[in-house]
Specification:
Helix content: over 70%
Number of strands: 0
Shape: globular
Strand content: under 5%
């Protein structure tokens, strides 16, 4: 399969996880505790993926300093954008957990894009840098996107939004995720190794900041002291995919 098609398909599959989560929430009443458990599991999966598939690869292809500069920079950029959206009143805080915010769709969409762009762009970047797609990274993003689609759609439905509106929002974000992965591949396909290293690490830093800011706090609200164990199981599953698949 051509790398461009592979990158676009991976990004689209990641985005479609939001649509699948939305469809489940629209037709089935899923307990918040179940959503939180999936969220905690997804956080563990993402921690493993960013550690062994992103930061490790960024350090190997560049250097410790280029990787760490990108890693810290990605976290700073994510937090600044998050704060900016908060002050604009557009960010539906804790959108993955489903509490707070107006549920109008704009804040939810902006929040999902802020979370999803680094998650999917790194798929294309990794494909450009290593010549192969990381199954662990794709699986991690898909698993983490499911609870976001679930919880946010439940909120939009509760606030009176119709099916057409809800699925247009998530469908548009799925397309944006596909374009993000494609962009990551196209823009960095011939970039120097140091640039690829830094950008990959930027995505990893943004993802880790998102986990600490959004997914884990929201999961803890529902799953309490079980959150840590569920996240460890997610880490175990992702690391198993990384090790056996690699």
């Amino acid at each position: 399969m051509h790398p461009i098609v592979l990158a676009t398909g991976a990004g689209l599959a990641s985005g479609l996880a939001l649509v699948v989560g939305a469809a489940v929430a629209w037709f089935v009443r899923v307990p918040r505790t179940v959503v939180a458990a999936i969220m905690a599991f997804g956080a563990g999966v993402l921690i493993s993926a960013l550690s062994f598939d992103l930061v490790e690869e960024a350090t190997r292809s560049g250097s410790f300093w280029t990787a760490m500069a990108g890693f810290l920079g990605g976290a700073v950029v994510y937090v600044l954008l998050d704060v900016l959206l908060d002050r604009m009143g557009s960010r539906k805080r804790r959108s993955r957990g489903g509490s707070g915010g107006s549920g109008t769709g704009l804040g939810i969409a902006l929040g999902a894009l802020l979370d999803g762009i680094p998650e999917t762009a790194v798929q294309g970047i990794g494909l450009a840098a290593g010549g192969s797609l990381s199954v662990a990274v794709v699986a991690a993003v898909i698993i983490s996107n499911l609870p976001e689609g679930l919880s946010s759609t439940a909120d939009m439905k509760q606030n009176g939004r119709g099916a057409g509106y809800v699925f247009t929002v998530w469908g548009s974000i799925a397309v944006a995720c596909a374009l993000s992965a494609l962009g990551g591949y196209a823009l960095l396909g011939h970039a120097p190794a140091g640039v690829q290293s830094t950008v990959t690490a930027v995505a990893a830093g943004a993802i880790l900041a998102m986990l600490a800011d959004t997914m884990l706090p929201e999961a803890f609200r529902r799953t309490g002291t079980w959150t840590g164990l569920i996240a460890v199981v997610g880490f175990f599953a992702s690391y198993g995919i990384h090790t056996i698949g690699g």
